[in-house]
UniProtKB/TrEMBL annotation:
Keyword Transmembrane helix: yes
The protein's name: L-arabinose transport system permease protein AraP
Entry similarity comment: Belongs to the binding-protein-dependent transport system permease family.
GO process annotations (BP): transmembrane transport
Gene (name only): araP_1
Species whose genome carries this gene: Ruminiclostridium hungatei
One annotated Gene Ontology cellular component of this protein: plasma membrane
Length: 288
């Protein structure tokens, strides 16, 4: 007689999947979800650490009003110039990684060596390494100082945009440092496009320019979108980020409120990227 299984095969597969994901779920709840909710709770309380324990005094939206309305300098004086600089830096990194990734996918002599060179900064780009790199002037292009480019930018451009552009040019080498992972993603995405598609295009008489716009770029659009998300998250957790340095204040409530405001801004930017990508995807699909 055949033995009856207590659980069906589908239930067993679900149980196996749940057991495999259980360590991650427990770690996420304990080390990510709980601290997030706890910090959100502290934004509405004045937190004091005393000998007998931790006391919480309800203050409501007081810290949010102080940061956004009363003491705007805590957020706006550093955040707005930083946002302008990041808005200019994100497309530069994405386009640079796209071009280099396509180039390094070609059959070139020593391409493995060059791939390693571009990926090395990802391994060494810890906070301390980047701080030392910037403090020693390693991120500055030599011709910027030689031709006094920053002076002309600050002279002929409005101050609101002159300072972010000058900071971007002064640390332009950081684009190379922050493009390693994006280049790897583009290389991996380029290899998902079958070679037969390019052969068919060449047979039909399409040149390199046409194949780039009609085959390569549409095929890489999900990977470009992934690079956008990765670049935004990576840059907004940059060690030299002026907002992150201000989060570590003596007041737990103000620090938590500032962190949540900053998180909301980053999530809003990611939401805009999602909307633009969905709109572009629908437009390209409708034109096919």
């Amino acid at each position: 007689m055949k033995k009856k299984h207590i659980l069906s095969s589908a239930a067993l597969r679900k149980l196996e999947g749940s057991l495999f994901i259980a360590p991650w779920a427990i770690g996420f709840l304990a080390f990510v979800a709980f601290p997030l909710l706890y910090s959100f709770y502290m934004t509405f309380h004045q937190v004091k650490i005393i000998a007998s324990g931790i006391t919480y005094i309800w203050v409501g939206l007081q810290y949010y009003r102080e940061i956004l309305l009363v003491d705007g300098g805590l957020l706006y004086n550093d955040l707005l110039p930083f946002l302008k600089e990041m808005i200019m830096m994100i497309p530069i990194i994405v386009v640079f990684s796209l071009l280099v990734g396509i180039l390094l996918n070609q059959k070139l002599f020593g391409r493995t060596f060059f791939r390693s060179i571009f990926f090395l900064p990802v391994i060494f780009s810890s906070g301390q390494v980047i701080n030392e790199f910037i403090s020693q002037g390693g991120g500055t292009l030599s011709f910027v100082e030689r031709f006094n480019v920053v002076y002309y930018i600050n002279t002929y451009l409005p101050e609101a945009w002159g300072a972010p552009i000058a900071n971007l040019i002064s640390s332009f080498v950081m684009v190379l440092w922050y493009s390693g992972m994006q280049i790897v993603i583009i290389i991996a995405g380029r290899q998902t496009i079958p070679a037969s598609v390019y052969e068919s295009a060449r047979i039909d008489g399409a040149g390199s320019w046409e194949t780039f716009w009609k085959i390569t770029l549409p095929g890489l659009s999900p990977f470009i979108f992934l690079n956008l998300i990765y670049t935004v998250v990576d840059l907004f957790t940059f060690p030299e980020n002026p907002i992150i340095s201000k989060v570590n204040t003596s007041s737990y409530g103000i620090s938590s409120a500032l962190a949540w405001i900053y998180l909301t801004i980053v999530l809003s930017l990611l939401g805009i990227i999602f909307l633009i990508y969905n709109r572009v995807t629908k437009l390209t699909a409708g034109n096919r």
